[in-house]
Amino acid sequence: MKNVVLIGFMGSGKSTIGNLLSQMCDLPLWDTDQMIEVEAGCTIRRIFDTQGEETFRCMETALLQKLCREETLGVFSTGGGMPLRMENAQWLKKLGTVIWLRLSPDTAYGRLKQDTTRPILQCEDPKGRITQLISERAAAYESAADITVDVDDKSKEQIVREILEALEENET
Ligand code: S3P
Fold first, then answer.
1. Mutation test of ligand 1: which of 14, 49, 56, 120 has the most ligand atoms closer than 8 Å to its C-beta?
2. Which element (helix H / strand E) includes 98?
3. Which of 51, 78, 101, 157 would you label with 40, given CA atoms 20 to 30 Å apart?
């Protein structure tokens, strides 16, 4: 089976779904946010605070290039902003089949309203920010994706089932 690369907005379930997929397909799970935190020796929030978002985005691109170069195998759960840089879309596709877990602003807000770990959402109006970002990012997610799966109101088992079906169709 080809690598699976999950993209999508914060709260779309990339880590949870990635975890289930990796177990079912018996492939290792790679979480790009976690890998960057280990490499940097601090949290993403701290990277944003001390070095700024641009430095974080450079770390994301460098990691993606390394994963491609080393031909890493597995299921990849990527940070929500990973497909934003044009060049990253090409690396994501090189890494594996890219699956966009698409969710609505309402679902995202419901899942993220208590969150303190995502620097981008620490603002006065997180709901407005989520709505704006989802709309701004939709085109980037769409162009990076090979497969789109809507996740609103679905169980994780159902989402995994849809992904596996879509992967099978995609490969035949
Ligand atoms: C970000 C999403 C986060 C993390 C960082 C920036 C974004 O990852 O990479 O806080 O710009 O959407 P998750 O999508 O895993 O929360």
1. 120
2. strand 97-102
3. 101
Specify the pLDDT at position 170: 86
Name the average pLDDT for the chain.
Answer: 97
C-beta neighbour count of 152 within 10 angstroms = 11
Average pLDDT (117-138) is: 97
Give the tens place of pLDDT for each residue, 3-54.
999 999 999 999 999 999 999 999 999 999 999 999 999 999 999 999 999 9
76 Cα: distance to centroid of ligand 1 (angstroms): 14
Please state the domain extents for the chain.
4-171
CATH superfamily ID and name for 4-171:
P-loop containing nucleotide triphosphate hydrolases (3.40.50.300)
**Strands of the sheet with 97-102, listed across from one edge:** 29-31, 75-77, 4-7, 97-102, 147-150
